[in-house]
Specification:
Elements (H helix, E strand, L loop, with lengths): L5 H19 L9 H10 L3 E6 L4 E6 L8 H6 L32 H5 L10 H9 L2 H6 L25 H16 L2 H4 L10 H4 L6 H7 L2 H5 L53 H6 L9 H29 L1
Antiparallel strand pairs: 1-2
Helix pairs in contact: 1-7, 1-10
Length: 319
């Protein structure tokens, strides 16, 4: 088994994080709404000030890092055209915020997107069914919510953007998994169990660094689906893909998963996948061309023929 040094994997995971920043920096984004600008005065900065009416003084405090919003990412996000009070209570406009506001239930994604024909192409209702049957939902129930993977303040539809590269999709999707599985603080929001070490649980996987940078976690941890662009049914670890041939073959499962975003047509007349795959995809053994196959066999055959003729000639000359 090929072993990768831990420091190499740390660098690879770091590249995923750095690449996420690059993806977000590609667009200028939408301007913040008037309401969001008010909220961003505090939640968009590491420090905020307010007038303390009791003491009559101006107070400067540090913003809770878990309540800090990156306004650059927010203006480039899919929900950037929303105002904060579209999801949060308008009572937050008053500061200090009333303590009971923390107990107000926030709307879920399906509250807005479910049963709405204008969002039909995204198949949110079908996605919700898969999420309900995923290992995370079964284990944690209502505590597990969409925003634990899809950060509402930064999520972008990278996969459905025709200008996105395959590696952009890999970076964003893997970062969703790493945001919990590589972060003990967030991981233990749902459980007191010790967070499994990613490298140790994948020690059976050769060339870990290459896999983590070129394919998504969900290629192995979700089933193939013909009805959704991407499956949201995370499988138990025992059911994850472990066979190399599932990906490294002419019938690679990546055709129905990662490459589904950029290649809706299966093949061109020459037997190639879309040029995007040939230029960007990790070599999986699935990009085959029948003419190149014939040429390769012909060269191999001629080589064997040449060796045979040479061997026979030497035998005859020795007699």
């Amino acid at each position: 088994m090929i072993k990768i040094k831990p420091e190499s994997l740390i660098i690879a995971l770091g590249m995923l994080l750095f690449s996420t920043v690059n993806i977000m920096a590609q667009d200028e984004g939408n301007p913040l709404s008037e309401n969001s600008q008010v909220c961003a005065r505090c939640h968009g900065n590491k420090y905020y000030t307010f007038h303390n009416e009791v003491t009559g003084t101006e107070v400067r405090k540090r913003m809770n890092p878990y309540l800090l919003i990156d306004t650059v990412k927010y203006t480039q996000a899919t929900h950037s055209f929303f105002s904060c009070d579209d999801c949060h209570s308008p009572d937050y406009a008053v500061y200090p915020h009333a303590s009971n506001l923390k107990l107000d239930p926030k709307p879920s994604c399906i509250d807005c997107h479910g049963g709405d024909e204008s969002f039909a192409k995204y198949q949110f209702d079908d996605i919700d069914v898969e999420v309900q049957n995923s290992v995370h939902k079964i284990a944690h129930g209502e505590q597990f919510k969409c925003e634990m993977c899809h950060d509402l303040h930064s999520y972008r539809l990278v996969a459905r953007n025709e200008n996105s590269k395959i590696k952009d999709i890999v970076v964003q999707d893997n970062q969703m998994c790493l945001s919990c599985h590589n972060n003990l603080t967030k991981y233990q929001i749902l459980t007191d169990n010790q967070k499994p070490e990613i490298l140790a649980t994948h020690d059976w996987l050769p060339n870990q660094e290459l896999h983590f940078l070129n394919v998504r976690c969900i290629e192995c941890h979700t089933p193939i689906t013909d009805t959704l662009m991407v499956s949201h049914k995370i499988l138990p670890k025992e059911q994850a893909v472990h066979l190399c041939s599932d990906c490294h073959s002419t019938n690679s499962i990546l055709r129905s998963k990662l490459y589904k975003y950029t290649v809706m047509e299966s093949r061109t007349d020459q037997g190639y996948y879309n040029s995007v795959i040939l230029n960007e995809a990790y070599v999986i053994g699935a990009n085959r061309n029948k003419y190149l196959n014939i040429l390769s066999l012909a060269i191999f055959g001629l080589t064997l023929l040449g060796i045979s003729i040479h061997t026979i000639t030497r035998i005859i000359n020795k007699k």
